[in-house]
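Human: If only I could read backbone structure tokens as easily as an amino acid sequence. Underneath my words sits a plain record pairing an amino acid chain with its backbone structure tokens. Take your time, and here it is.
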Amino acid sequence: MYKKILIANRGEIALRIIRACHELGIKSVAVYSTADKSSLHTKFADEAVCIGPPQSSESYLSIPSIISAGEITNSDAIHPGYGFLSENADFSQICSENNFAFIGPKPDIINAMGDKSEAKKTMKSAGVPVIPGNEGILSNPSEARRIANDIGYPVMLKASAGGGGRGMRLVHKESEIENAFTTASSEARSAFNNGDMYIEKFVENPRHIEIQILADAFGNVASLGERECSIQRRYQKLVEESPSPAVNEDLRKKMGEAAIAGAKAVGYIGVGTVEFLLDKNKDFYFMEMNTRIQVEHPITEMVTGADLIKWQIRTHSGDRFPDYLYKMKLRGHSIECRINAEDPDKNFTPSAIPISSFHMPGGKGVRVDSHVYAGYEIPPYYDSLLGKLIVHSPDRKSAINRMERALEETIIEGPKTTIPFHQAIMKDEKFQSGNFDTNFLKTFKYNKD
């Protein structure tokens, strides 16, 4: 087992990892930019090292600064969290070359799954259902047009190295292909330094379902159920829940088996998430694999009882996971709302204003993952996530009721937040029925009253 882990991240996920380290008896090292000096993750770690100015490129994305912090603190492992360098193959390689264990996949696996086109081919060869589309990278708009005519419109053009909705364009007819290809490729080149594109059939009105997997170094892979992630805005998740109201036991088993097959095909170790699109006929298709811990991992922890961060650390340190992880049954229902410093009345404009008053809810079945407090000054340089509000209850209806109660108890004064928006979602009849898809917010009527 590791003796000291450096967390190459910030905010709530850094604090979450620090807590897991402490419970495992492992020393923790926080890194921070000058803008994050007062963040809670710097207070609760055993050591904290400033790695640069506010700009991510000069701090949380600066590999030399992070490696130096690991060296001066005598850390023996580095945990990347999510975002930033968590799926950067070069970072994984450099950690290894500098004698740090990287608590994440090896570089070849990150590359294999990070390249969406290659990931699709890998999954297809493993027998995982994939969306019809091209093999490899598109050479030009003309090739995209030819393939689109073969598989039928609508189609989705996607950046091979993309994520977060960038480098994606929905195309409904042939005349739109060239402009969509050019603009999406340019956007991807700017965001990821890679303009490669691929194309696939657009699955209309799908649900976004992801399967949590856990794998050890002995070839064992377990599925820990699914998460429903269809409530999204611009491809960014807002509300997640587990289990999905659209997935029964038989479908859960099939999706879990597909995710396990995909993980075994690449020799995966640690925690990972295999994401699928589920259509109206209950057919599912591989979308991508995230080779890191997910923002929404707490809802899986709530319904299974597994501590995913601890098991991520343990599997990378060489522990074999026990048989009971194979036999876990989903218990009850869990919902997570991401609380962001954004104004839903003004098209979710960021609201980086100091927090004057802060009170988080409590009571049975309520969990809060947050790094902020009263007096905290929200840095304008990073994601606007203030924290995650998670509830657990015996069934979906009571979980929704519990989330409504928890949202009512939450007090964050100073910045505008997404709390009123979440309250409106919880009261929405379509959401309460469980009959929704990724287009939910297109017809959702937001009324904060």
Remarks:
- The first helix runs from residue 11 to 23.
- The domain at 207-443 is CATH 3.30.470.20 (D-amino Acid Aminotransferase; Chain A, domain 1).
- The chain has a mean pLDDT of 95.
